[in-house]
Amino acid sequence: MIAQIAAPVELTKLYRTFLEALSAQGFKGEITPDHANCTVLATDNSIYQRLPQAALFPRDVDDIQILTRLVVQKEFRQIVITPRGGGTGTNGQSLTHGLVVDLSKHLNRIIEINVEERWVRVQAGVVKDQLNAALKPHGLFFAPELSTSNRATIGGMINTDASGQGSCTYGKTRDHVLELKSILMGGHPLNSRPLNDIELQQFSAEQGIIGEVHRCVTAIHAEHRELIDQTFPKLNRCLTGYDLAHIRDERGQVNLNNILCGSEGSLGFVVEAKLNVLPIPKHSVLINVSYASFMEALQDARALMALKPLSIETVDSKVLGLAMQDIVWHDVAEYFPHNESRPTLGINLIEFSGDDLAALDVIVNAFLAHLSSDKSVERIGHTLAKGAQAISRVYSMRKRAVGLLGNVKGEVRPQPFVEDTAVPPEHLPDFIAEFRALLDSHNLQYGMFGHVDAGVLHVRPALDMKDPIQASLVRTVSDGVAQLTHKYGGLLWGEHGKGVRSEYAPKFFGKLYPALQQLKAAFDPHNQLNPGKIATPLNSDEHLLKVDEVPMRGEYDRQIDERVWQSFESAVHCNGNGACYNFDPNDAMCPSWKATRERVHSPKGRASLIREWLRIQGNAGIDVLGVAQRARDTNAFTSLFRKLKVSLTSRNSDKDFSHQVFDAMSGCLACKSCAGQCPVKVNVPEFRSRFLELYHTRFFRPLKDYLIGSLEFTIPYFARVPWLYNALMSAKPISLFLKKYGGMVDSPLLSNISLSAALKKAKVKVATPQILSSLSDSERKRSVILVQDAFTRYFETQVVSDWIELISRIGYHIYLAPFSPNGKPLQVLGFLGAFEKTARKSSAKLSELGNFGIPLVGLDPAMTLVYRQEYSKLSADSPCPMVFLPQEWLAKIFEVGSPVINNRAPSPPPYKLMAHCTEKTNTPASTALWQPVFEKFGLKLTVVATGCCGMSGTYGHEDRNYETSKKIYGISWQPIVEQHTGNGTLLANGYSCRSQVKRFGGEQINHPLQVLLAHMKS
């Protein structure tokens, strides 16, 4: 039995008193000291883990003023607060042992867009891609380009002075900041912008913190101007924390924005920004050059910079190899053709852009001529990606590089702690050679990619952080790389900030470090704002954090039994890259996160909770693997008795941390988008079902679990009297009963259409070994076996009937596999013992039919993909045969001896497919096959970018999920459905999706197969 585990860390008395006072002061946002939220916010994209006392989510700027006024009161000066944005930092910038203040949840409005003057005003929690999506219709964009642009917030970009691809042309974030609104300690608002000398005198004359910070900055510049010029390297990525080199801008005006940009939340809360935006180039070309070695790619990039491209990005063979195994490769493979005899071990992505197409062509042609004539390095070949859409596809692969590096096999994985060094570009090849020698001396593997034009390279040494000996190399390698970057006139932290690596700041700044301390003291005299980062206040006893003194994830992970770790690897290998925080409403990744904006309801959040839950269970002496096995072997009566005993004897069971984990898991739609889109392949539905199995060894299941789990087994019997079933389910007393005791808001009704007529008309036979064995080879080649699923078979019989007619019309003999429960509902709900029995039985039946060489074809993507995903994990001894999706089979038969298709009907307008999220994220190549299939029928179809519909099996029917389901539908599907209401061009291939549209949109949309049939019949 699993253990009753309360939150292992209780609020200290001081923090409890502070939070009570904060609430009493009128703080309107959420105050969450629960262990679940604290656990999720204890990590970022770094190697560190710091459990905060609580998390705060301010609802508006007033909340931040209340917080910063209260925290400086004498009795609360030991309270520590740390701003947090997207949580994508790689150096622990937003991790704290105090209070996390997350500005991303509520402060995320785009306040104003001024197209004529080309500026925007936004709140700190606005995501970079969110801003650019709003700017795109105006032909504008916010330039700094990050690999994390779909989840990085503007506030986070300002606090880290983010840059990324194209920075040599467009600069860093601070180059585009016009004004900032910040809240300083004591609740004082600071509106910072470039100041002339008269304005500077006025601000400096003010009393209190506003005057103090202006006087401090002015004095530092006056006293240390020459030393600053001598100390700061002339780098594109001179990321130093407090940018003393730009206290005065190019016009000679004092600009506090340049101090706040890159300050990592250690000086104040940036709550609003006025930003410069630029016109989107009208034309772009990306040249993808392949090399036989990574060093040749580096050397060539240095020479190619002289040709003045917009940017040059370099990727090594390790990242490229991982990308080939990822969902992203489907979109970019054409740009990186495989050469067996000369494998690509390095690539350069060189971009040119401009508004004059003819002029751009001249530049590109000159560049290509250079590639042909220059023999200084050996190039394997090159391809061109033209236009924003094509270039975006290639860059999406490069953007996923950080996450992809975490998807290597085994426990030794690339770790971010020396991964953003910056040196003058002309020194980069020599620097990298020494860098590699340093790593090689410790026998470390690593992956590399970066911005060669800026002298920045991302290098991640591979370590098993659970191994104390390997973890100790963080210190050794960090010291070595810090010394190496200093030797070449660069920085250890060229792009991703200091964070925990701030300990190297005094050595780099030397005599200037006390000036940083003066700044910190002026803004934050009691060292309460993100302490230990950048600098400590002058004349204080505080010290900077050290790279090997802050708790690391590995210290907690090694507490999990190795067998458990390996068994739950899909959860525990989450590296925190945060790809699941994707802003894009029309991307399928994690609908529950998009709808709730609660990080516990994201794949990263759920993985963090499972990791922590397993750790605590192990420390309590519980063998979760043994518990799971015993649960499957225990009879129902014994299990019931045990749960009754627990409910009667457990104390404070409502405070059990397991309930917090359960709430997070219950909010998951089990759509498997994370399994397909996460670079590390974190599969929440898989470990969610395993958790539910364990959780319910101790706690009762709701009635709805049994109703849903048994549905596939009972529905064939109910289908014999559909009128009775539908009447019962529609009756108000039954509806009220199901809602109150079953947790179900509503339920789909059985179809009144009989399949018999369609079966008879198409001469469909039941697929049995006896019948199939009697077929000749030629008959088998023109045959297909349909695998039924409970939902389309009994709730959407018309779709099945149309599918049968379509197959018959294109000249194939149809055999119907006897209905057999698939088991997906059982798997989703954690009835894993029952699922395994069901799957083995179904697999055996399909294997018997599959032995005759006739294709097996399913209809619903969610159900069909179970055969090739969940079934494949059960046993290698009895693998389930391949069950094709409809378009996979159609595309295959059209390649070989295509039947004649009626094209006499006039061409209708292009159809638009809203694909099922499980299919398009787990088998994207299959989704793309709908287009050539439609072309074969003389029809046009495009796959529309959509998020999740919000139904996902029975999720949307459950009372606890109803509002979230509706909100998910409204985020992406609703606007698209409303735009196409009544024109018949919108299609959906998922049963759940069509049900959701009918439910909330009042529209009956067709399956793609129904359109093909109608075209043949016209």
Automatic annotation (TrEMBL):
> For the FAD-binding PCMH-type domain, which residue ranges apply?
48-280
According to its UniProt entry, the protein's GO biological process terms are: lactate catabolic process
GO MF, any single term: 4 iron, 4 sulfur cluster binding
UniProt-listed Enzyme Commission number(s): 1.1.99.39
Q: What class of enzyme is it?
A: oxidoreductase
Recorded superkingdom: Bacteria
Q: Which reaction does it catalyse?
A: (R)-2-hydroxyglutarate + A = 2-oxoglutarate + AH2
**Which cofactors are reported in the record for this sequence?**
FAD
The protein's matches in InterPro entries, at most eight in alphabetical order, are given as: 4Fe4S_Fe-S-bd, 4Fe4S_Fe_S_CS, FAD-bd_oxidored_4_C, FAD-bd_PCMH, FAD-bd_PCMH-like_sf, FAD-bd_PCMH_sub2, FAD-linked_Oxase-like_C, Oxid_FAD_bind_N
Q: Which UniProt keywords apply?
A: 4Fe-4S, FAD, Flavoprotein, Iron, Iron-sulfur, Metal-binding, Oxidoreductase
- Domain 4Fe-4S ferredoxin-type stretches: 658-690
The family classification in the record reads: In the N-terminal section; belongs to the FAD-binding oxidoreductase/transferase type 4 family.
The protein here is known as D-2-hydroxyglutarate dehydrogenase
Source organism of this protein record: Pseudomonas arsenicoxydans
